[in-house]
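Below is the data:
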Amino acid sequence: MGFEEQAFTECLTSRRFEKEIIEDFEETRQAGARGTPTFLIVVAINIALNLADAYSTSSDLIEAGLVLSEAARVSQATDNVHAAVPTLCSLGQLRMAQGRLHEAAECYRQALHLAQSHAKQDRQPLATAGIAHFGLATSHYEWEGRLRVG
């Protein structure tokens, strides 16, 4: 798999993150997710985010990028802005780590667009939009630094 499978299995079966999963479930329920398909999609995206983190931790950034890209695609295709925005921010962070600043900036721009559209519809801003703003600013700062050095 490209990462320490035994450590991943131990982490998964230890229930170490049970509290966080329950909190995520409650947050999802409060956001309006009621049906099984919505719940399964949210669970799948959360699993994808954890898997991407495991790949990143084991320095397999290519696999992490593939997993995050798919999670971003699924969350956007299902109009799940609460999953799409943080997933795009995670993908942006990964692209920054890879030195792919233009792609990182595009991920953050997409996240901001989704968050702003959501805020206009629901009249409630998403807290995760702040992460996208910060990430976009950081990618621009890094790009400017490269221009000055180069």
In short: Helices lie at 5-13, 18-30, 36-57, 61-77, 81-97, 101-122, 129-149.
